[in-house]
């Protein structure tokens, strides 16, 4: 099977209005910026986006918020985005805020065939409202359901045409767990090589989880908070 | 009275050799600047790194290396990088010995609120709910009162909760307090120059004072 596609536009083929997407990244670090640009161009709307953050006003998922292509956002932290806050407070955007560890584990569970799990995070808070509670070792836990997506879109440093991926630095973040949880997973990479060129011992995401892969050009990799000493 | 740096300095005295520590955004981040030279402490950032080092020089800046506050960082020799699920496995599985985080309010039973002001500010909880629900040892670093001069140490939190009965210790600009869930905030230390009466006046929740309360040692 040919997993390699020519570019971001070809990679997002089949994504249609109303679908649920997972997008890797933490802040602007490790986001699939080429696919996000292609989605913005496509005009596909009413999307449910699962991503730790929502980008900033003019980069990352903020671009899809500006163009009002996102109907619902599932995230853990959405500060740094004025447009997001405006749409949420006006009721135009549906928002589900999830503790970060639960978000990561719900994606992992979705990809690993575990339908739900108990966690102590969020017990006794708004997050726990309406969820099944069970005590383990004397401590209350809440039931959290697995998450899956029509498409998961991840960004890696290097990949091969079999879909094996290696991430760099903390740009790894949510990418490996989301890669597991997409019915179709798209990987965009900075460097695409032939099978055999990556050391199997160093693969972070095995190619079995990836259906489409392409090499993006001229990554901007914008830094949200450049801090130096 | 302490400033933010003083609070961080006092908290650094709680660190123990060999500990893995997660520092939240704000005052907690400053704690990393005051680790005693005699001990080894490894800092975790929940986006996926153990062995977080100081901020980079201009030449070292790498867009692919940030902390959970989205600031550019460096990785120390011996650092490890991992995905977000593994990161929270460390936290939930209690492999991290200490969590230091900020708060808007703390109750005298150890509840904490720090993620949402209804109708005003909704940024999200990030990793805070996972951290407070699982950490064995949680220290809150905050000012004793808010900008309006109202106590942040309450009998009950008024804001949406981040976690229940989880805070163990609080270090403020005025005092060090231990949360004893049955009796309230037990006053352990006064900040330099601060009287017990000042602490009483600034604390809305139950306050337990036993004998002479010593002044903090910072150096």
UniProtKB/TrEMBL annotation, chain B:
**Cited InterPro entries:** 3-oxoacid_CoA-transf_B, CoA_trans_fam_I, CoA_transf_AS, NagB/RpiA_transferase-like
Q: Which UniProt keywords apply?
A: Transferase
Could you name the domain of life of the organism this protein comes from?
Bacteria
Q: Pfam families of this UniProt entry? A: CoA_trans
Q: Which family does it belong to?
A: Belongs to the 3-oxoacid CoA-transferase subunit B family.
Can you provide one Gene Ontology molecular function annotated for this UniProt record? Answer: CoA-transferase activity
Record's PROSITE patterns? COA_TRANSF_2
Descriptive protein name: Succinyl-CoA--3-ketoacid-CoA transferase
